[in-house]
């Protein structure tokens, strides 16, 4: 017989202590939330388990035997230790649930994440959120490396070593300044013409660049870029200045098009739609605030 097989469970110990304190099996049963027959059966089972009588029953109530008093004293120590363990575990959970590390692509971070985080703060007022931005390749690397609890990427596939779910849909738009020659083309440009034209592009490794390269692969790929910039804001500024055509998210360019600073150029042959994904390490499931953030992204779809 192992030591553990002689030790009653915590619920039984709590019942024993309640009987000793109240002097009544019935009152103890009511306190712990069970019926008196169930409490009696539990005490008998505990006595069989430890091998000694623990209570003396009489018309005046129930009182501990000499052995029962000793077991009750030890039981109090066990319950105190269990409460300390529970408090420690709760503290660990609060520390985990009190922070959230997020890394997101620029499109998601700038145009979708603010609304999601405001909603998350309503659920977890005391949460501390760290939000970093990176291109999709770097986002995947940081999540795989344990530097973030959840990441958000752009692209056709979930990066290797990660699990993910689609949280939003987006579409890339070819845009030019109002004075650019393409701005007057109601029918837009062909995919071959777009592929042959030097563009103002995001850097390699970005989700935007990946989607565009994939879409133009059968047309020879993209021409060497006119400029290669690391932020959507820089791309839009370059396009407005007349540097050349850009390819950016329609989420990012809606205001410039509405104001007439930029013009969207159709490319009828190309499907430039793309999913935006939440990602996390493969084999794990998001928990706590990360799980709640993912739930909020789905509510917005």
Automatic annotation (TrEMBL):
PROSITE patterns: HTH_LYSR (PS50931). The keyword DNA-binding applies. It comes from the Bacteria. Keywords: DNA-binding, Transcription, Transcription regulation. Residues 8-65 form the HTH lysR-type domain. Coiled coil: none annotated. Pfam families: HTH_1, LysR_substrate. Belongs to the LysR transcriptional regulatory family. This is LysR family transcriptional regulator.
């Amino acid at each position: 017989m192992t030591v553990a097989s002689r030790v009653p469970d915590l619920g039984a110990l709590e019942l024993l202590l309640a009987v000793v304190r109240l002097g009544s099996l019935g009152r103890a049963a009511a306190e712990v939330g069970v019926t008196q027959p169930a409490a009696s059966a539990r005490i008998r089972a505990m006595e069989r388990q430890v091998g000694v009588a623990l209570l003396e029953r009489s018309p005046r109530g129930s009182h501990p035997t000499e052995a029962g008093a000793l077991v009750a004293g030890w039981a109090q120590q066990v319950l105190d230790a269990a409460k300390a363990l529970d408090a420690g575990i709760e503290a660990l959970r609060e520390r985990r649930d009190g922070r959230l590390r997020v890394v997101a692509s620029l499109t998601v971070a700038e145009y979708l994440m603010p609304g999601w985080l405001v909603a998350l703060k309503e659920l977890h007022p005391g949460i501390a959120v760290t939000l970093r931005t990176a291109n999709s390749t770097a986002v995947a690397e940081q999540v795989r490396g344990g530097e973030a609890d959840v990441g958000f990427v752009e692209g056709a596939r979930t990066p290797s070593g990660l699990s993910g779910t689609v949280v939003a849909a987006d579409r890339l738009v070819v845009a030019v300044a109002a004075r650019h020659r393409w701005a007057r083309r109601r029918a837009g440009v062909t995919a071959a013409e777009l592929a042959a034209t030097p563009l103002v592009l995001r850097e390699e490794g970005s989700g935007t660049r990946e989607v565009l390269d994939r879409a133009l692969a059968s047309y020879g790929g993209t021409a060497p870029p006119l400029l290669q910039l690391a932020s959507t804001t820089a791309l839009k500024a370059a396009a407005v200045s007349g540097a050349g055509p850009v390819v950016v998210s329609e989420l990012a360019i809606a205001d410039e098009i509405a104001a007439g600073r930029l013009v969207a150029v159709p490319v009828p042959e190309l499907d430039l739609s793309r999913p935006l994904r939440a990602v996390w390490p493969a084999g794990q499931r998001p928990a706590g605030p990360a799980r709640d953030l993912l739930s909020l992204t789905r509510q917005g779809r």
